[in-house]
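To the wet lab folks,

You asked to see what we're planning to order before we commit. Fair enough. Below is the target structure as tokens, and below that is the sequence we designed to fit it. If anything looks off to you, flag it before the synthesis order goes out.
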């Protein structure tokens, strides 16, 4: 959500996070993704100002129809999911969500019938 890497969200000022939130909103509105994925509950909770659980969220991204998905943090400091194998089920679920959405939004197959000219 901000342009620099940090050890944790506690290293970010409120001003940086607010500016980052506004920039993220602009990008999502411009790019119109089907899914917006947050890396960790903490940053999503800062963005929305409310608590969340991991996985697909009930509410879409503000001002859009984009589905919001919250992953466990990829930080090695994330104690709840310390190994990649602990996080793998979330990546699989996200892929399944994407595949489902791709299928739902796929253009229907069209056929063309040519009439003989007389």
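Sequence we intend to order:
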């Amino acid at each position: 959500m901000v342009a620099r890497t940090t050890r944790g969200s506690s290293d970010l000022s409120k001003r940086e996070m607010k500016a980052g939130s506004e920039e993220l909103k602009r990008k999502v509105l411009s790019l119109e993704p089907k899914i917006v994925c947050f890396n960790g509950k903490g940053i999503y909770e800062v963005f929305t100002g409310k608590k969340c659980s991991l996985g697909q969220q009930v509410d879409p991204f503000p001002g859009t129809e984009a589905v919001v998905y919250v992953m466990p943090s990829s930080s090695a400091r994330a104690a709840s999911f310390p190994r990649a194998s602990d996080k793998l089920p979330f990546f699989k679920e996200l892929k399944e969500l994407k595949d489902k959405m791709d299928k739902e939004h796929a253009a229907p197959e069209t056929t063309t019938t040519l009439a003989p000219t007389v």
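Structural context that might help your review: The chain has a mean pLDDT of 86. The two ends are 64 Å apart (CA to CA).

Thanks,
Computational group
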